[in-house]
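step=encode ok
step=design start
structure_in=
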């Protein structure tokens, strides 16, 4: 065993046979999408209100829907049954 913890100089974790089962890569994509949607919600509200002259209530409503979709994606990624 070398100083990196691997054998034969291999420190690439993705070549481990159980790497996908331990890290659930597909669920990590849901987490990334959820953070993108949460961030997009705030940005979208500003763009709709400032540039497209949508009322603050309508822009807020759209932002809440996008942000809620992101939160649901995050909850799915965290609490979904593991594949």
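sequence_out=
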């Amino acid at each position: 065993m070398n100083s990196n913890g691997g054998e034969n100089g291999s420190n690439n974790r993705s070549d481990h046979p159980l790497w996908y089962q331990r890290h659930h890569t597909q669920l990590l994509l849901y987490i990334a999408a959820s953070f993108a949607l949460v961030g997009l919600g705030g940005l979208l509200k500003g763009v709709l209100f400032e540039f497209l002259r949508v009322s603050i209530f309508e822009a807020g409503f759209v932002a809440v829907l996008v942000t809620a979709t992101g939160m649901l994606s995050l909850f799915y990624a965290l609490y979904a049954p593991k594949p």
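step=design ok
step=annotate ok -> The chain has three helices and no strands.
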